[in-house]
Amino acid sequence: EDDGPGLAVEPEQALDPFYTTKEGKRTGLGLSLFRQQVERAGGGVELGRSALGGLAVRARLGLGHVDRSPLGALAGALAGVVAANPGIEIRARLARGDRAVNVSSADAGGAAGSPKRGTGGAARVAARRLRERVNEGIAALGMRG
Asked: What is the pTM (predicted TM-score) of this model?
């Protein structure tokens, strides 16, 4: 989840590889490649409105599926988003059965709500802390990284 502007189009259009919001680009592969990987691992992706006001991306996939990427890659990917976008709060919910762990870039020292906070070195620290918290959540839920 984030607190950005949300989607200006229907979710299916946002998942199209030829849709982008970036001026001067002709493709927007991020969400479409993400969906492809999740579906390859027997899951699905849902896009919706976040309680934070922006976009919520929900992915569900089986832990034991042979094509599931290592969960440690998730921690690094979220950390990269935080480092590159210090003004956006990122929330992730890791769940297994009836147990869940919630992590947030704001809780990790990120710059929720203000693009000026969390820039430079502070953004790198927040990204590192978020990566650590995601990995701790993965371990606490007994998920393999």
From this structure: 0.65
